TrEMBL record:
The lineage of its organism: Bacteria, Candidatus Wildermuthiibacteriota. The chain crosses the membrane at residues 6-28. Keywords: Membrane, Transmembrane, Transmembrane helix. It comes from Candidatus Wildermuthbacteria bacterium GWA2_46_15. This is Type 4 fimbrial biogenesis protein PilO. InterPro entries: Transl_elong_EF1B/ribsomal_bS6 (IPR014717).
Length: 174
């Protein structure tokens, strides 16, 4: 009978050991899963803190450079009503006694950025015309002059050298 007792004790001991291992194994799996979730949450929290810091820095930089951003916004012509650009253009031509005939603007569809193209015919003294081009170049708008044709105009003897020009101006729009 003692052998039977030992055998039963051994069987129950093994069953107890198996149950203990099962409970420990399930507990370890739960602990490992919870640690992984906690680690993921910590990474997410760190990422959110980093994004918050970047946002705060971006907001400070935006405020610091707001005047520059507004200035950059002003270099683009309003595509719906380019009145300011045309006023600037006509003001320069009147100050330098250059006669201009701008045509209606055309929207350029092949450019990557939005732009308008103005075809211009102009006539004036050669020295004033050079100043006119310099003022356009140094003006507040982002533009490109292309298809430039310049020729000497027929004038009576004893008058200033007049030139006639036709060119296109591409202005970039908002």
């Amino acid at each position: 009978m003692t052998r039977k007792k030992y055998f039963l004790n051994l069987v129950f001991g093994l069953i107890d050991l198996g149950l203990i291992l099962l409970i420990v194994s399930l507990s370890l799996r739960t602990i490992i899963r919870d640690v992984e979730i906690l680690s993921s949450l910590k990474k997410t929290q760190f990422s959110l803190q980093e994004q918050e810091e970047n946002f705060i820095k971006l907001n400070k930089d935006y405020r610091a450079h707001l005047s520059e951003i507004k200035t950059l916004d002003m270099i683009f012509v309003d595509k719906e009503a380019p009145v300011d650009f045309l006023s600037f253009f006509e003001g320069i031509s009147q100050n330098l006694s250059i006669k201009i005939n701008p045509s209606l603007p055309q929207r350029s569809k092949k450019d990557v950025w939005g732009s308008m193209i103005f075809q211009v015919s102009a006539q004036g003294e050669s020295k004033n015309f050079l100043r006119f081009l310099e003022k356009l170049e140094n003006g507040p708008y982002l533009m490109e002059i292309f298809d430039f044709n310049l020729k000497k105009a027929k004038t009576p003897a004893g008058t200033a050298d007049l030139v006639e020009a036709t060119f296109s101006i591409r202005t970039y729009t908002k």
